[in-house]
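Exercise (ungraded).
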Amino acid sequence: MSRDSDNLVEIRGLSFARGDRMIFDGIDLDLRRGKVTAIMGPSGTGKTTLLRLIGGQLRPLSGSIRVDGQEVPRLRRDQLFDLRKRMGMLFQSGALLTDLTVFDNVAFPLREHTRLGEALIRDLVLMKLEAVGLRGARDLMPSELSGGMARRVALARAIALDPMMIMYDEPFTGQDPMSMGVLVKLIRLLNDALGLTSVVVSHDVAETAGIADYIYLISGGKVVAQGTPEALDRERSPWVNQFMHGEPDGPVPFHYPAPDFADDLLGAG
Amino acid sequence: MDTLQNLGRWALGMFERLGRGHLFLLYVLMGTPGLLFRLRLVVQQVYSVGVLSLLIVTVSGLFVGMVLGLQGYNTLVDFGSEEALSVVVALSLVRELGPVVTALLFAGRAGSALTAEIGLMKATEQLAGMEMMAVDPLRRVVAPRFLAGFISMPLLAAIFSAVGVFGGWFVGVGLLGVDDGAFWSQMTAKVDFYEDIVNGVIKSAVFGFVATWIALFEGYDAVPTSEGVSRATTRTVVHTALAVLGLDFVLTALMFGGV
Ligand SMILES: Nc1ncnc2c1ncn2[C@@H]1O[C@H](COP(=O)(O)OP(=O)(O)OP(=O)(O)O)[C@@H](O)[C@H]1O
Ligand SMILES: [Mg+2]
């Protein structure tokens, strides 16, 4: 793998641990500019953690994380903040500000980081809300939204500053088939029309494979497979086959690391 | 051996937390000058921290003043000096009870609410979300609340004392028949502006600083779960009460001497 400027994000030899548990053990990963890259893997493998590492909220144990040529773990706080203004992140939980209305939530980054007048902010916010189909919900409080709606508002907020890159943490959970379809199209559209770089973390194999240009499968702290959706679909390795086709038996671990079940039941203690 | 290890771990943990608390304060203080341009944020918080505490502070001040009136009268009347009632009531309130009781009420009413609010914002990833939007939660969320608490406490204490004097007057003059003119003239003659009032205001400002700092830090440092937030809220009230009472002794010794 070569370092070239086609990659917005380059991760090399990244290791990260929570307590004694290695979450990542030397992974390499590239996000190409202008493409939708999907990161998939069993629950609890560290997909959210990976996004937080890219966003500079966590520091790696070792390895390098370059975003747009800048080494994220080494940035000063103000440099990191400048970089983050160009990254949107959609949190798994939405992370909307609960004391602000939907409208004010989407307007929040604009008001914090720009000197635009209220009239312009209003137009921008309504445009973003229209894109996620929630223009009519602008006066609701976050507590009055369903989980899926909250995530769509969070998406509108993430694109408010027109970032160069968006990280979506599980954008599809809690969406009905229709809004799921809209979201899938929206992610693709935003990516292509605005020239964004997108990272989608998801379990939904079919939807994700439908929009991703490139997929990484991670498990047990390693990248176990990577490739275009078509290539992965043809891939014969039992791991990939099991994960991509959702079969219950195979090498993909479903359990959090634990001692042998029989030993546990018989109570070695 | 285990106890020794645990003691060591506990002490290390405590000092680490103390260090975090001071760094936190430093960052928050660095964030306050920027608020000059965003006074609206502070005003909003003065409303929820200060104005919403008004009712409990006024009602408590009234009752404390009335009790002082009763107790003071019953003691003074034995010496035939019940005209001095206003002095007893006013000095107790302005020097001690105003700042101290207000700070305790403040911890229960506003401090616990601040801790819970910040702690829940942390638990629901709102603070992390802000950081990812390149907004510093210490500046945007914590600093305005800090300033609001610091401004509100002396004002609340002043209101407490004023209402308390009125309560003492009501009991002394209204119910027990102390001379109205003597009540006010004794008070204006014996209560010194610098010695009593300014010192009382300094006390309440110090208490406001400490109470708000504790409340915000406990929230910011809370374990981000519902149990963690509930523990943090309890700690806010307990630690603020202890800090206020301890500091009160130190400040009193410094201001009014004698030690
Ligand atoms: N704050 C934390 N402290 C300690 N361990 C944590 C913390 N957050 C996450 N972990 C651990 O890190 C691992 C990775 O968590 P992460 O949230 O990144 O998983 P994920 O791949 O996003 O899972 P999911 O698909 O369920 O969202 C988990 O096994 C979890 O136990
Ligand atoms: Mg996750």
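Further reading is listed at the end of the chapter. For now, observe: The mean pLDDT of chain B is 92. The radius of gyration of chain B is 21 Å.
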